[in-house]
Amino acid sequence: MNTSDHQLIRIKRIYEEYSEDDGYRVLVDRLWPRGVSKEEAGLDEWCKEIAPTTELRKWFNHDPGKFEEFANRYKGELIQKEEEVNHLIDKTEKQHVTLLYAAKDEDHNHALVLKEFLNEQLTANN
Q1: Which InterPro entries does the UniProt entry name for this protein (predicted)?
Q2: Rounded Cα gap, residues 106 and 14, in angstroms
Q3: Among candidates 108, 102, 17, which has minimal Cα distance to 69?
Q4: Going edge to edge, which strands form the sheet with 45-46?
């Protein structure tokens, strides 16, 4: 199977409106987002374990200046989370997957890093 056969992986803030195009909706935050009910979230799954460790999240503290180093450290963590990564990769082979996150910064967050990492794994496996 080549990469073009894979379904899309998208990212989206959990505060954005649900869409049919979202496909399989996975919350990838360790903490439940403030002000969102379980019903509003419309989740298919909450994958807490794939999120950055609490230590890494606190070190990063949403500082754009630390983002590159954060991404490198988080990818190092993801390598250790083979079961969770493979689970999400399996989902992408069957349908669209939308990774949901709560961070306000849409340009510097762990969901971007996770999406890139998953895409790298998908490409490497083909």
Answers
A1: YeaO-like
A2: 12
A3: 108
A4: 9-13, 97-101, 24-27, 45-46
Tell me the pTM.
Answer: 0.92
Give 58-76 pLDDT, tens digit per residue.
999 999 999 999 999 999 9
The rounded distance, in Å, linking the Cα atoms of 34 and 103 is 11
Tokens of 6: 């894979």
The answer to whether the CB of 44 falls within 8 A of the CB of 24 is: yes
Q: Can you say how many angstroms the Cα of residue 57 is from the centroid of all Cα atoms in its chain?
A: 14
Q: How far apart are CA 89 and CA 118, in angstroms?
A: 7
